[in-house]
Design brief:
Two copies of one chain form a homodimer. By secondary structure, chain A is mainly β. Helix content of chain A is about 15%, strand content about 40%. Chain A contains two helices and nine strands; from the N terminus they run H-H-E-E-E-E-E-E-E-E-E. In chain A, strands 1, 2, 3, 4, 5, 6, 7, 8 and 9 form a nine-stranded antiparallel sheet that branches. The mean pLDDT of chain A is about 95. The interface between A and B is medium-sized, with 29 and 29 residues.
Chain lengths: ~150, ~150
């Protein structure tokens, strides 16, 4: 588990990455940046820093910060409550993102994007300079995500 | 009606505004920037420049460019096909946006946002420096929009 100090440091680092890219956050948003280590306590290798802009029953938008080479591990968003599950579009804002969807590799550079259908296995990692990804999606229900690695806790 | 030259000039100007803000577009996206004059042929006063990132049956995301003081006139997004109508969140990225929702005035500065419920009258205009607004929403069906001014053609 990450210590509070480790979380605070990652939050501060992610906020600086966003500020450098000219992406403005409110103070409340900065304080609420989610630092996800997926229960593995190896944030530099496996992790994600997340700003949730909006998450209603219909629409969700986030900014995802990936530190250099940081990986978001393979998972899928299963159907729930009569919906097909979360549909998400990843749009690369800065850096390079290597996205794997159902075994296919896709490289996203700034201005490039890809839409991942619901219930489809995917993972992604940043290149050596890190990356910012905007995510546009249906409702996020992170607690329902199914990760391939059974050690992962979301 | 705007001439092709007027449209091209507005498209070029909007692309420059986005580039200045560090927002990367593909060449295809730049070429496809929508210049909306709402049929009034007074683009400097009433208009909007739009980049549609994604518009699926479930999710839509756009970047809206407003030139200085430019106004998007009052309209609402009515219910359709069993849905309550388009729900949209406007997030100010640069400049200042003056949003009016059901008669209430809201001022958005960079990093600030507001979610407009479906079927709710709203209009917005930029301050004297212009503005960029990210829109996160359910599906866009522009042809269904209901404008208060009967002269408007979308």
């Amino acid at each position: 588990m990450l210590t509070q100090a480790e979380q605070d440091e990652a939050r501060k680092r992610a906020a600086a990455v966003l500020a450098d890219a000219g992406i403005a956050l409110t103070d409340a948003e900065t304080a609420a940046i989610e630092v996800a280590d997926f229960g593995l306590s190896q944030l530099d290798e496996t992790g994600l820093e997340i700003v949730v802009y909006v998450n209603t029953p219909r629409v969700c938008a986030k900014e995802l910060v990936l530190f250099p080479n940081q990986l978001c591990p393979e998972h899928r968003h299963p159907p729930f409550e009569g919906t097909p599950g979360k549909e998400e579009t990843f749009r690369c804002r800065t850096g390079v993102v290597h996205l794997t969807v159902d075994g296919d590799e896709i490289v996203l550079r700034p201005g490039e994007q890809y839409t991942i259908p619901p219930d489809t296995l995917h993972s992604f990692h940043a290149g050596p300079e890190g990356a910012i990804v905007s995510e546009f999606s249906t409702q996020s229900r992170d607690e329902l995500d199914v990760f391939t690695d059974p050690q992962i806790v979301r």
